[in-house]
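Intended use. Records like the one below are meant for learning the mapping from a protein sequence to its folded structure. Do not use them to infer anything beyond what is encoded.
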Amino acid sequence: MRQAGTLAAAREILAAEPIDLLLLDVHLPDGLGLDLAAELRLGPPDRPAILALTASVLPADQQKALDAGCDAFLAKPYGAAQLVSTLSELATRRASAIAARTEGR
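Structure written out for the chain above:
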């Protein structure tokens, strides 16, 4: 597990090593996490699954996260069980997508 407190640090980590799941805060000190999600969406198909985290519970903000390329969205505060369940679902979907691409080769 790696931790980055800024977009710049996250970009460095993502460039240096493969990441399966990305918990992405929408508001970071040096910009919006949704900008990073949009960048990753345009990248290779093996990008990490992205879980957006924000204090906003507005449906429009949730849709913005999904439109930017996030795979799921949790509003703060969220429970541990909800976080674990969402991460498990994202990991399963990502593994299935990778397996499907591998079989298609």
